[in-house]
Design a protein that fits this description.
The structure is a single chain. This protein is of the alpha/beta class and 343 residues long. It is built from 11 helices and 11 strands. The protein has 2 domains: 186 residues, Flavodoxin domain (Rossmann fold), CATH 3.40.50.360; 72 residues, no CATH class. The strands form 4 sheets. Strands 2-1-3-4-7 form a 5-stranded parallel beta sheet, with helices on both faces. It is globular and about 70 Å long. The protein binds flavin mononucleotide and iron/sulfur cluster (SF4) (2 copies).
Length: 343
């Protein structure tokens, strides 16, 4: 058996390890591979596999692009090799109630790709590990994380046992109606949102240029520019850098981002629509769909341009401090996500 995993903050990696342990306990040889280590298809021998597994987080109601790219590259098979999919989602705990995340396309799309390539899906399951999305909510408390992780460990072991017993697990199908309903958001995130979100990371003057974030980014999205980390558009917002920076120097500049997004997606487009397009003699420019397209193209350009400006301005001490202290992530109560693997 072979398990391929991608993991920003350790949840999917831990799930892959639990499955591997369960298999090994039963004497089944199981190897796992990290998709972030830039695997070459030539090195991966799938022909001798009885079962192939994929574990990965859910990003913006979809599987991360790095996972989808890997699945596209997999060789076709005509022997119906068995595969399982396990996506970790944003689990939370409110009082004693464990609340689930939402798949969107995170299972459907990988399953479709694999079916097209001739693989047979025997496992199709979401796993509600602790949410790591600390750009939008504070990191969970360790007690809550441990409780969610313990529950997930039991679920994953059962999942592995069923697969070993030759049973099919299609638990993810229960969520199909919600997943389909949410699909427009999944598309919006994949084709637009993720690029905008890549511009919501900044390093403050706590950064000592150790370059750990640059080395460890799974998609090489960080580079030091003028002595300061710069986030490129291909960042997948996996949260690895932000949660593991030894200096806790990486922040989401909340106040600045709110201001720029308001400018980019509200103020400027309204101005253009009201004063420029209405005054224009070209009637097709007044069409609603033109307005929407313009709004997003222009909004994106403003966000990207403003990020470049911000990166330069961060070299000024006063601005660096202002941005840092208007970032919610700066404050202790917001916490970082210390997952089951991340130390
Ligand atoms: C940018 C981003 C987008 C996310 N989108 C979703 C989502 O659409 N649905 C969901 O259930 N969880 C979502 N999450 C939560 C993660 O999928 C979840 O915490 C996962 O267990 C993280 O796994 P990892 O530690 O292996 O990276 C998102 C997290 C991030 C950082
Ligand atoms: S890991 Fe943190 S301290 Fe090191 S270069 Fe990146 S932001 Fe700076
Ligand atoms: S830049 Fe950070 S959040 Fe983005 S993909 Fe790299 S490690 Fe993940």
């Amino acid at each position: 058996m072979r398990i391929f995993y991608f993991s920003g903050t350790g949840n999917a990696k831990k799930a892959a390890e639990w499955i591997q342990e369960s298999m090994k306990e039963k004497g089944i040889s199981a190897e796992k591979y990290n998709l972030a280590s830039k695997l070459s298809m030539l090195e991966i021998k799938l022909a001798d596999c009885d079962l192939i597994g994929f574990c990965y987080p859910t990003h913006g109601f979809n599987a991360p692009p790095i996972v989808l790219r890997f699945l596209w590259q997999l060789p076709k098979t005509n022997n119906k090799t068995k595969v399982f999919l396990l996506n970790t989602r944003a689990g939370m705990k409110i009082s004693k109630l464990f609340t689930p995340g939402i798949n969107g396309f995170a299972l459907i799309l990988p399953a479709l790709i694999l079916r097209l390539k001739g693989y047979r899906i025997v496992g199709y399951r979401p796993l509600d590990m602790p949410s790591n999305w600390i750009s939008i909510h504070p990191g969970l408390r360790q007690k809550v994380i441990n409780s969610i992780v313990n529950r997930c460990q039991r679920i994953t072991k059962k999942f592995a046992e069923k697969l070993m017993a030759g049973k099919k697990v299609h638990r993810g199908l229960n969520d199909l109606p919600i997943d389909l309903l949410i699909s427009p958001l999944a598309l919006g995130y994949y084709f637009y949102g993720r690029f905008i979100l890549s511009k919501t990371f900044i390093a403050t003057d706590a950064c000592n240029q150790c370059r750990i974030c640059e080395k460890e980014c799974p998609v090489d999205a960080i580079s030091l520019k003028n002595g300061m980390p710069y986030w490129a558009y291909n960042c997948e917002s996996c949260m690895h850098c932000m949660n593991t920076c030894p200096q806790r120097a990486i922040e989401t500049p909340h106040a600045y981002t709110t201001l720029i997004w308001w400018l980019a997606f509200s103020l400027v487009p309204v101005f253009i629509f009201k004063y420029v397009l209405k005054a224009s003699t070209f009637t097709y420019l007044k069409h609603e769909s033109i307005y929407i397209i313009l709004q997003y193209v222009l909004g994106g350009l403003i966000v990207f341009g403003a990020y470049k400006v911000l990166h330069t301005l961060m070299h000024f001490n006063a601005i660096n401090k202002l941005i840092a202290y208007t970032s919610l992530t700066k404050y202790k109560f917001w916490r970082r996500y210390k997952g089951p693997v991340v130390k």
